[in-house]
Every structure is written in structure tokens, then in C-alpha cells.
Specification:
The protein is mainly α. The chain has helices at about 5-15, 20-30, 40-50, 55-65, 70-85, 85-100, 105-115, 120-135, 140-150, 155-165, 170-180. The N and C termini lie far apart (about 50 Å).
Length: about 180
């Protein structure tokens, strides 16, 4: 099995929650191709799942050191900063991920940072801009629905969840949110 096949299998195992075997593959890839970022990225994801943020951070740093401003890696590092409540560093990483890759997840994480730093009005305006720019991204509609629902406007939130389901009919989260609204 070549490196790409091993990585593919490692990510599959991670999705299947087979952490031990996924970690074995990540470390095998690191040993076989120490100058490439992917094995370190896989381990960073695994450690994040295990809530081992310091180890995850160390691994994602190694991946970033071996890549050229990869937005996915920067977004993960930003997420780790956010989990550790280092919000300024998180926002810098999300902004860099957006600049380098226009990564949808980084845009959503930027909204979360705005909410966490008492910039709610900015977060709403930013997310409205994202919905206009990417109207087929169900996750943006869901995030807006969540924000509105937290504000107590369930009927208005419903419209956002319904739009998300029109885009992604199998989205279980949006379906559960609608069920919660319906009581």
C-alpha cells in the first residue's frame, strides 16, 4: 500500500472511530514520509478527537511547517486555539485560512470567534454575506438558524433550517432542530 492509500485508509478508520488503527497509520506515514504534512495532520485530527489538544497542536504545527499555507491545516490550528480560548491567535489562523484557501469551515469558525468576542452584530452581518456568496452551503443556513434560535426567535430560525434541508435533505442536525422547534 502506498502513502496515499495508507492515508485514505487512515482517514476512513478515523471516520469509523477506529482510533487505534488510524493512529498506527498516521505514525507509519510519518516514519515513511517524514517531510510530508499528511501523517501529522491525521494524527492532529485523531488527538483532537481524543481531546488531547496539546498533542494535536504539536502535530498540526508539524504539518503546517511542512506545507505552504494549507487552509485546512490553519483552520484546524485555529480551532485548537479556539478550544484553548486563545481567541486572537484563532482568528489570525482563520483569517489566513480564508485568505489562502477561502475555506468555508474557516468562515464559519470566524463567525464563532466573533460571537465569542462579543461581536454578535458583526457575526450576523458576516454570515449574511456568506449566505449571499454561497447560497448552496447548508452549514451557513444552519449556523444562522442556531444563532437566531439562541435569540429565542424559533419561527424565524425554522426558515433557515428549512432552507438547509432543501439544500441537504439528509442533514440530520437541521432535521433535529426543526423537531425541537415543533416540540
Amino acid at each position: 500500500m502506498n502513502i496515499e492509500e495508507k492515508l485514505s485508509r487512515g482517514f476512513e478508520l478515523l471516520q469509523e472511530k477506529d482510533i487505534d488503527h488510524s493512529l498506527d497509520i498516521a505514525r507509519e506515514v510519518q516514519k515513511e514520509a517524514p517531510d510530508t504534512p499528511e501523517g501529522y495532520y491525521l494524527e492532529a485530527l485523531i488527538m483532537q478527537q481524543l481531546n488531547q489538544m496539546d498533542i494535536s497542536f504539536s502535530c498540526i504545527e508539524k504539518a503546517i511547517d511542512r506545507s505552504d499555507n494549507n487552509g485546512v491545516y490553519l483552520n484546524l490550528r485555529g480551532h485548537i486555539h479556539m478550544m484553548k480560548e486563545d481567541l486572537e491567535k484563532a482568528e489570525v489562523d482563520f483569517d489566513t485560512a480564508i485568505e489562502s484557501s477561502d475555506l468555508a469551515a474557516a468562515h464559519r469558525n470566524k463567525v464563532m470567534i466573533m460571537l465569542m468576542t462579543d461581536r454578535g452584530a458583526d457575526a450576523v452581518n458576516y454570515l449574511i454575506g456568506r449566505i449571499k456568496a454561497e447560497p448552496r452551503d447548508a452549514e451557513n443556513w444552519i449556523l444562522m438558524g442556531d444563532m437566531i434560535m439562541k435569540g429565542g426567535q424559533n419561527d424565524k430560525a425554522r426558515t433557515y433550517y428549512e432552507q438547509a434541508i432543501k439544500i441537504d435533505p439528509d442533514n440530520e442536525y437541521a432535521q433535529r432542530q426543526l423537531e425541537e422547534i415543533d416540540g
